[in-house]
């Protein structure tokens, strides 16, 4: 039963209507999030309007971690069951995750300049996110350096799995090393320590980022699947 | 098994020698470039030695693996009754003995030129000795992953260096504590456990990488 779901042909058929849907939801959420975040939400008591970078920065960091988790899960499927769809999804997710990581680092350094007084400090969280960016870069470099993509995917998947040890380090870095970056205020067991007027745009933006990830992933995965189809058709006669 | 690995590595003694020479020459360049001020040299010595040792291992290990693969020796491992992870462990031991120890000796030779005291030198070499198995294991993992590519040492460093960072930080905090005359036992334990964890992780992953490399 579950194998029907994972068949590439079925995937192509199902995702065709899904793609415009997720794209539309992304536009709506993005407009709503930006409007509530930049216009209606109150400025921070201490940081003033600078705090509004948070609505771009924090969801990007969440997505950077989430996409790496997705990449590692798909890599596990690709190594253990050698499923072609998992391979396609993994290599489609990697550049999007790298984009989110870069966005998080850039907006973070723009935020750090007025608040901390420096674009970059060697704080534990910043360093571990930079390492995450290098892991994405290494994954992509290893995948691209093989002349046969199938071999490249298997080697790169193994690397992605080894890199998973960085994820708990990023999450724990703020609590284990008491450094400049503030600890989590939304994702924790007790109630979030952030007022609902600020939480709403944050969650709207996170939803928009997630829909962006889904739509880009679908576009990339469909392209890759079609390219593989063409490759097979070309090789046949 | 360890003896065969040492023997195999000894066959590449030319490149072993050139790796040691690379390490020595790079250290020499650093002492020249940093100038003659003892304070600066003293502070820079641990990171420089650590990074250069890591790079030397990452550049040379893929070469040995490639040589072995071309000789068809990697396929033989699967005919052996023992698990391939024993082979990887034997390889790590051989590499630490034949490449790691000469690097340590070169480092000890250069320690006066970095104006390190005896205690500092001893601690630095001890951290390196603890870290070497992990560095070698990661180098082997990287070499196996990139066996069929043209990338070589630079690609291996890109893949593996992010994983070495925690080890580097713990080793440097040991050296910082030693420099300030404090008790450096806690980071020492962290360094040792980190090194062991990396050896286990990369031997486990290396077994899979070996299968992938040989099947392909």
Describe the structure.
The complex is a heterodimer of chains A (237) and B (216). Chain A is mostly helical and 237 residues long. Chain A has one domain (50-182, 198-235). Chain A has helices spanning 2-5, 8-40, 54-80, 84-116, 124-144, 149-162, 166-176, 196-235. The radius of gyration of chain A is 20 Å and the shape is globular. By secondary structure, chain B is mostly helical. Chain B has one domain. In chain B, helix 2 (13-34) packs antiparallel against helix 3 (38-70), helix 2 packs across helix 5 and helix 5 packs antiparallel against helix 6. The longest helix of chain B has 33 residues, at 38-70. Chain B is globular, with a radius of gyration of 18 Å. The interface between A and B is medium-sized, with 24 and 22 residues.
Helices and strands, with pairings:
The complex is a heterodimer of chains A (237) and B (216).
Chain A: H1 2-5, H2 8-40, H3 54-80, H4 84-116, H5 124-144, H6 149-162, H7 166-176, H8 196-235
Helix pairs in contact in A: 2-8, 3-4, 3-6, 3-8, 4-5, 4-8, 5-6, 5-7
Chain B: H1 2-11, H2 13-34, H3 38-70, H4 73-77, H5 84-110, H6 118-145, H7 153-179, H8 185-215
Helix pairs in contact in B: 1-5, 2-3, 2-5, 3-6, 3-7, 5-6, 5-8, 6-7, 6-8, 7-8
Provide a brief overview of the structure.
In chain A, 77% of the residues lie in helices and 0% in strands.
Features:
heterodimer; A: mainly alpha; 8 helices; B: 216 residues; mainly alpha; globular
């Amino acid at each position: 039963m579950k194998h029907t779901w994972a068949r590439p042909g079925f995937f192509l058929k199902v995702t065709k209507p899904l793609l415009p849907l997720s794209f539309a939801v992304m536009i709506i959420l993005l407009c709503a999030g930006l409007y509530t975040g930049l216009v209606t939400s109150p400025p921070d008591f201490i940081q003033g309007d600078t705090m509004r970078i948070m609505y771009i920065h924090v969801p990007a960091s969440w997505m950077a971690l989430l996409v790496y988790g997705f990449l590692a899960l798909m890599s596990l499927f690709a190594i253990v069951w050698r499923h072609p769809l998992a391979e396609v999804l993994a290599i489609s997710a990697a550049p999007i995750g790298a984009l989110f990581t870069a966005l998080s680092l850039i907006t973070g350094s723009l935020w750090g300049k007025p608040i901390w007084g420096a674009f970059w400090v060697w704080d534990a969280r910043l360093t571990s996110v930079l390492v995450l960016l290098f892991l994405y870069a290494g994954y992509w470099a290893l995948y691209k350096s093989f002349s046969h993509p199938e071999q490249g995917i298997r080697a790169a998947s193994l690397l992605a799995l080894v890199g998973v040890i960085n994820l708990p380090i990023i999450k724990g870095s703020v609590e284990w090393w008491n450094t400049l970056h503030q600890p989590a205020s939304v994702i924790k067991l007790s109630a979030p320590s952030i007022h609902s007027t600020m939480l709403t745009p944050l969650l709207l933006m996170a939803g928009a980022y997630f829909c962006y990830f889904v739509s880009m992933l679908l576009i990339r995965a469909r392209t890759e699947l079609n390219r593989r189809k063409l490759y097979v058709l070309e090789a046949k006669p | 098994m360890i003896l065969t690995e040492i023997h195999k590595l000894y066959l590449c003694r030319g490149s072993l020698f050139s790796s040691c020479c690379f390490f020595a020459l790079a250290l020499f360049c650093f002492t020249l470039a940093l100038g003659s001020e003892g304070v600066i040299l003293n502070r820079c010595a641990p990171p420089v030695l650590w990074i250069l040792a890591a790079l030397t291992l990452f550049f040379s290990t893929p070469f040995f693996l490639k040589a072995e693969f071309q000789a068809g020796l990697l396929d033989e491992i699967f005919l052996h009754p023992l698990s391939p992870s024993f082979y990887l462990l034997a390889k790590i031991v051989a590499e630490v003995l034949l490449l790691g120890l000469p690097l340590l000796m070169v480092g000890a030779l250069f320690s006066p030129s970095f104006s390190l005291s005896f205690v500092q030198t001893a601690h630095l070499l001890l951290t390196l000795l603890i870290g070497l198995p992990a560095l070698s294991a990661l180098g082997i993992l990287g070499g196996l992953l990139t066996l069929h590519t043209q990338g070589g040492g630079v690609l291996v460093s890109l893949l593996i260096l992010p994983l070495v960072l925690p080890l580097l930080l713990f080793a440097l905090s040991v050296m910082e504590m030693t420099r300030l005359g404090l008790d450096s036992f806690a980071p020492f334990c962290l360094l040792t456990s980190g090194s062991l964890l990396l050896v286990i992780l990369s031997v486990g992953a290396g077994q899979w990488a070996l299968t992938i490399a040989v099947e392909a």
